[in-house]
Amino acid sequence: MVSGATPRSAIRRAMMAVLGAFVIANASAADAQPAQHMHGTAGAKPARPELGTSAAFAPDGVLYAVTKDGQHVLLHRSADDGRNWEAPVVVNAEPEQISADGENRPKLAFDADGAALVSWTRPLAKRFTGEIRFARADDRRHFTAPVTVHRDRREITHRFESLAVTGAGKVVLAWIDKRDLELAQAANRDYRGAAIYAAISDDGGRSFRAEQKIADHSCECCRIAITGDTDGLPLLMWRHVFEPNERDHAVVKLGADGAPGKVARATVDRWRIDACPHHGPSLAVAPDGTRHAVWFNEKDGEGRVFYGRLKDGRVDGQRALGGERAAHADIATAGRHVAIVWKEFDGERTLLRAEMSVDGGATFSARALTATGGVSDQPRVIRRGDALFAFWRTENEGMRGYWLE
Amino acid sequence: MKIRHIVAVLSWCIAAASDATEFQALDRAAAARIVTPSSHAVPTIVALWSAECVHCKKNLKLFAEMVKADRRFRLVTVAVEPQFAGLAEPLDLLAVPGQRFAYGAESPEALGYALDPKWRGELPRTIFFDGKGGKTALSGVVTEATVRSSLGLQTNP
Q: Where a domain ends, among A281, A302, A322?
């Protein structure tokens, strides 16, 4: 950097170069005004609320949602499909840490008898660690004290849980678990990614069988999709890390006892990367057995949200959804109807978009549902009987729903 | 500019930069400036990371070591989430130098778009500036050789 000329001019030149770097550094800092300095203080809350929310219709057709408020999970009820919400019920009477941002959110499902089932991840003190928590309310108002679902109680990763009640009445909780990674690291062995573990309840969540490993080598922080197959048994889909580092997706069916069948590759986009996409899939099974899926991957150098039908290790009808910035799609079916929702930033606003099919996914029609200028959660599509419903929580507009007709 | 003036301005700059370990809230205007090549007169790494990202610390460790060993380039870190108690811990544990930003109140989509319209949220994401108007963005864990070539620094210091 310093060369030639006299020593004095060389010193001056060097100092000017350093000065230039400092001015740039501090100018960009000053430019960030009114960027206040943010001091981390114990107990300080995030600068904005964590919007991670789940919604579901109860067997009686009433819409419910679960959110996080500080160290409590709240259950909200709407008698008019999301136009108005009643005062919420506290799920966990004792406060605790709760994950509800990005790929994390409290989950909600209903047992056949109408009981509300709620799960969430409780982060522990050590980074990347957590426990899977679960509570049940027969009357949707008075919840049992939360339990930790897994027997393994080490302060390691048990996070990113998903909850479902399948057709056979099983309550399924599946999560990302790093006990196998920890063992490998202790033995100085390599281990790709994390693992998927699941626990099954045969009695509506009153008790859970001991958790079982579903698969080694999942990606570390993408939400897991669970749905019921046509026979009522659980199907799981997640972002996997195939050798050497292909972050594609895998699918597996669980038996009635929760034991996994053969893990199959579900997508073949071959995104080779050592990174956290923070972008999990969604899966829905039609009555004819067709497995409709949506997922995010980078393919041919471009990151896109895809739709496709998973069939015997291949994907039928794979295509990109929406524009270049489509993200966090969700999918559901009702008879021959298939609905997909996703959000998409247009440079100024975040749009909620949908595609609907009335012919089992052969053809789709697109629809723009709404937009927000602020922060938003991932959208969901949920079902009531034969009808499908888009649900989206935004910071500015709150929790809203849109019938997909 | 005389040397004593340069020294005076430099002293001020060093004082101003001494609290570089504090996060500054990133808004869209600041994001746009950070990723404008002409803002960077020296080779600069802009490292996007988050507390949730298990792969990010590999890059942060590498960048921190490289910046400390080679004063020809700068490091700026951007946490792609709002500041919270404990956010600085991964940076402090690795003694990551340089200016620190964390997302401000605007939507993550808007801030991410301002930083890099091609970026889809995967982390780590790193934007390299060679200090001569060149810019390269890469996702995932990178090697030292990739960092050097992306910064236009082909040789060790």
A: A281
One domain for residues A276 and A310: no
Instruction: Please give the single-letter amino acid code of residue B64.
Output: A
Indicate the residue of A38, A350, A376 with minimum beta-carbon distance to B83.
A38
- Mean pLDDT over the full length of chain B: 88
Residue A394 belongs to domain with CATH number: 2.115.10.20
* Range B134-154 average pLDDT: 95
Number of domains in chain A: 3
B83-139 confidence digits (pLDDT tens): 998 999 999 999 999 999 999 999 999 999 999 999 999 999 999 999 999 999 999
Tell me the mean pLDDT in the region A312-335: 96
d(CA A128, CA A336): 41
Q: Which ipTM was obtained for this model?
A: 0.85
Residue from A176, A247, A186 nearest A215 by CA: A176
Mean pLDDT value across residues A293-322: 96
Query: Could you tell me the CATH number of the domain that includes residue B96?
Result: 3.40.30.10
Please identify which residue in the block is written with the tokens 């409780």: A122
Chain B residues 1-40 with CB within 8 Å of chain A:
1, 3, 6-7, 9-10, 13-14, 16-17, 19, 22-27, 29-30, 33-34, 39-40
Q: CB distance from A44 to chain B under 8 Å?
A: yes
Examine residue B81 and state whether it is found in any structural domain, yes or no. yes
pLDDT digits (tens, 9 = 90+) for A140-189: 999 999 999 999 999 999 999 999 998 878 899 999 999 999 999 999 99
Q: Is the peptide bond before B124 cis (omega within 30 degrees of 0)?
A: yes
Rounded-to-integer distance, Cα A109 and Cα A145, Å: 17
Chain B 77-106, CB below 8 Å of chain A: which residues?
Answer: 81-90, 98-99, 101-106
Whether pLDDT at A44 is above 70: no
Residue at A39 is within a domain: no
Please give the pLDDT value at position B12.
40
Rounded to whole angstroms, the Cα distance separating A321 from A318 reads 10
Does residue B15 fall inside a structural domain? no
pLDDT band for position B18 (cuts 50, 70, 90): very low
In a shared domain, residues A324 and A399? yes
Report the mean per-residue pLDDT for chain A: 90
- Residue of chain A whose Cα is closest to the Cα of B80: A102
Of B96, B107, B102, B110, which is closest to residue B84 (Cα–Cα)? B102
- Spatial contact of A173 and A150, defined as CB atoms under 8 Å apart: no
Q: Which domain does A13 fall in, by range?
A: 1-31
**DSSP letter for each residue of A124-158:** -SSTT-EEEEEEEETTSSSPPPPEE--S--SSS-E
